């Protein structure tokens, strides 16, 4: 698309207001482009002239899709890409009008841009195509009934299943996700969303296990419970525990292993 903007801003061949018809000299230029022996420099001149001729159509297509949230300048460049592809692929020998061939290619390039480049998540083509239909159907329903439609009502209007409508509505919300670096509410003074989002507390599972363990500890015999508490909550060594309870360190080790195995089986079933 390099150089297309420069071509587009040059003086274009006049178009009659309100029409989309191509200049009648387009076919003549294309025949010259496809003539054997035409040099590269001449082909580029002819291509630039064809681009200037169709600049109003390109801009009209871009503005047709401008309400979908993409910069018009980007849509203009995408439509120009479709135009140049049409120029390069058109065969004057078939006798068709160039505009009839080029206009669908420009539209298709813009639609492909929305389908492949602008979605925040990857969704099926069917859901992508259903999204604009939902928009129009919702607007018509609200105008006629004074309220928002339910998924079943939209499904009946469009001749699709309620599940498809639900999928399309969910995808609609994910078309352009908010950036975590943005504020999310349009206030430039607000802190970024990433600083206001909650996260999973890594200690939460320990709280759950701790509550379950509290009950299991209460059920242990006094000596086993004392050994566990002194070892893990009193931070004492097995030798210190043995001395405090008046038993051998080996006995403490056996009781501790047995008690921990019992608690593990009761907590996790293994």
From TrEMBL:
Listed Gene3D superfamilies: 1.20.120.1810, Winged helix-like DNA-binding domain superfamily/Winged helix DNA-binding domain
SUPFAM superfamilies assigned: Sigma2 domain of RNA polymerase sigma factors, Sigma3 and sigma4 domains of RNA polymerase sigma factors
Signal peptide: none
CDD domains referenced in this protein's UniProt entry, alphabetically: Sigma70_r4 (cd06171)
Tagged with keyword Transcription regulation: yes
Superkingdom: Bacteria
PANTHER family cross-referenced by the UniProt entry: RNA POLYMERASE SIGMA-E FACTOR, SIGMA FACTOR F FLAGELLAR
Stored NCBIfam families: SigBFG (TIGR02980), sigma70-ECF (TIGR02937)
The name this protein goes by in its record: SigB/SigF/SigG family RNA polymerase sigma factor
Species of origin: Actinomadura napierensis
Species lineage: Bacteria, Bacillati, Actinomycetota, Actinomycetes, Streptosporangiales
């Amino acid at each position: 698309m390099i150089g297309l903007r420069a071509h587009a801003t040059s003086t274009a061949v006049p178009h009659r207001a309100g029409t989309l018809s191509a200049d009648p000299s387009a076919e003549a230029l294309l025949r010259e482009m496809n003539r054997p022996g035409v040099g590269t420099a001449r082909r580029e001149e002819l291509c630039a002239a064809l681009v200037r001729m169709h600049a109003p159509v390109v801009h009209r297509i871009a503005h047709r899709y401008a309400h979908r949230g993409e910069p018009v300048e980007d849509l203009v460049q995408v439509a120009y890409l479709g135009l140049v592809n049409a120029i390069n692929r058109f065969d004057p020998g078939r006798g068709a009008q160039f505009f009839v061939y080029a206009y669908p290619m420009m539209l298709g390039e813009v639609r492909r841009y929305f389908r492949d480049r602008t979605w925040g998540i990857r969704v099926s083509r069917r859901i992508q195509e259903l999204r604009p239909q939902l928009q129009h159907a919702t607007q018509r329903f609200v105008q006629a009934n004074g309220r928002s439609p339910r998924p079943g009502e939209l499904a009946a209007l469009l001749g699709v299943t309620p599940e498809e409508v639900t999928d399309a509505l969910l995808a609609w919300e994910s078309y352009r996700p908010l950036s975590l670096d943005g504020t999310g509410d349009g206030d430039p003074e607000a802190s970024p969303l990433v600083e206001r989002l909650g996260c999973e507390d890594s200690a939460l599972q320990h709280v759950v296990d701790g509550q379950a363990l509290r009950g299991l500890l209460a059920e242990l015999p006094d000596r086993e419970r004392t050994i566990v508490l002194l070892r893990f909550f009193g931070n004492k060594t097995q030798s210190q525990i043995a001395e405090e309870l008046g038993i051998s360190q080996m006995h403490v080790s056996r009781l501790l292993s047995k008690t921990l195995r019992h608690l593990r089986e009761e907590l996790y079933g293994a």
